[in-house]
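#struct-pred
JK: can someone run the complex with DWN? inputs below
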Amino acid sequence: MTQELATKPEVLQVDNCRACDNKNLTTFLQLGPTPIPNGFLEASELNQAEKFYPLDVSFCGECGMVQLGHVVDPNVMFKNYVYVPSTSTTMVQHFGELATDATQRVNLETGDLVVDIGSNDGTLLKAFKRYGATILGVDPATNLATLANEQGVPTINELFDKNLALSIRSQHGPARVISATNVVAHVHNLHDFFEGVHDLLADNGKLVMEFPYLVNLIEGGEFDTIYQEHLSYLSINPLQKLLAQHGLNLTSPRLIDIHGGSIRVFATKSKPESDDGVTAFITTEREKGMLDLETYSRFQMDVNRVRHDLVEALWSLRFADRKVVGYGASAKGNILTNYCRIGVESLPYIVDSIPYKQGKYTPGMHIPIYPEDQLLEDQPDYALLLAWNFADEIVQKQGTFQKRGGKFIRPIPVLKVIHPSRKV
Ligand code: DWN
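RT: done, C-alpha cells with the ligand placed:
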C-alpha cells in the first residue's frame, strides 16, 4: 500500500478564520496526514495508492474559533456517506427528544415547515412529522438522500447554501424550525450558510443546532473527534458573534450527553427577552481558557499521553497473550488507530453493526471489519471501544461477552477497563 498526499484542488489551505475572517490563526495540533476517516476500503483496494490529507488544527486569536487549516472538497467526504444515526437506538431516542424540545419552543402547528439541514437518513424529520410538521430534508449524500426519499422523507440532494435557501423559501414558504445537528462543524462557508438560514427562517421561527462542544473536546482529550469532516470545533463565544453578523440571536444553550459531550443551542431573528444562559456559557468558556492560546498549546501533550497509554496497554496485553479486538468502526476510531499507528498486530479485527462497513477495511491501518456476532464467536479477552461515545449502549447489549469474562476498554478521556457492574 502506498500513501499519496492529496493536493489542490481537492485540498485547499485556509489562511483566514472562517468565522471572523482574521489572519490571526495559530496551528497548535498536527494529527495528519491521515486518510479520510469514513473512507472504508474493499479488499481489492488494499494494494492501491491511498490518499492522505492534512489534519492540522488552528486557534483564532481574534474570535476564539478552533478550526482546521485545510478544507477537503465536500464531494470527497459527503457524496457517499456512511454515518447513519438510525443504526443507534441512542440516536433515535435523542432525535425524538430534540423534536419534542424544538416543537414546544416554537409552538409548532400542523403543517408548519421544518427543514433539517444535513438530514442524513431522515431520522430527525420522522420525529418532527409525528408532530404534524411538513418536513423537508437537505443532504449532499446521494446514498442517504435516496434512502430518505424512499422512506417518505422528501430530501433535496444538495449542500445547503444561500441560493438553495431562497429556492426552498420560494417553493415551500418560510420554515418555523430549521435544524442542523452535527452539521455546522462540517461547513466551510459559514457566512453563506447562516445567510441562507436567515433567509429561510420564518420571523417567528427558530434555528436549532447541535454540535460536539469544544470544552468537552479539550477537557476530555477527545482528539479522535478531530477529522477532515469537522472543519470547526465550536463554542458559544465565536458562534454568538458569527450568528450576530447574520441577524441571528443565539439563545438557550444546553449541554447534552451525546457524541462525547455536545451542546444544543437555538437562534432567533428577533432579539430574545433573555439570552437564557448564553452569558453564563461565555463567562465559563473564558474562565476555562477557551479564548487563550496556551490552553491549546497544552493539548498536544494530552493527546500524546492518550497515545502513549493506549499503545503501552495494547502492547502489554499482547505480550501477556491477551486478545484485543476493536468495537465500532467509527470515524473517530479511524483517527485514533491512524494517529497511534494501531494495526492488525494489536487489533486483528473490528466488529461493527453497520452492514455497509462489514467486510471492508479501515482507512490507513486496514483493519478488517466484521459483524458484531464475531465477538461472541471469537470471545476475545478485550474489546477496545473505538465508538466510546456509545459505550453505555454497547456494554449493555454485550452482556454475554462480559459474563464469559470479556472486558471493554475505553481509550478516552482516560484509558480504563470497564467492569460490568459499573456504568461507564
Ligand atoms: O459528526 C459525526 C459524528 C456525529 O458521527 C459524523 N461526522 C460521523 C460520525 O462519527 P463516527 O463515525 O464516529 O460515528 P459514530 O456514530 O460515533 O460511530 C459509531 C460506529 O459504531 C458506527 O459505525 C456504528 C458502530 N456501532 C456498533 O457497532 N454497535 C454503534 C453502536 C451504537 C453499536 O451498538
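RT: quick notes.
The first helix runs from residue 74 to 78.
The longest strand covers residues 201-212.
JK: thanks, will look after standup
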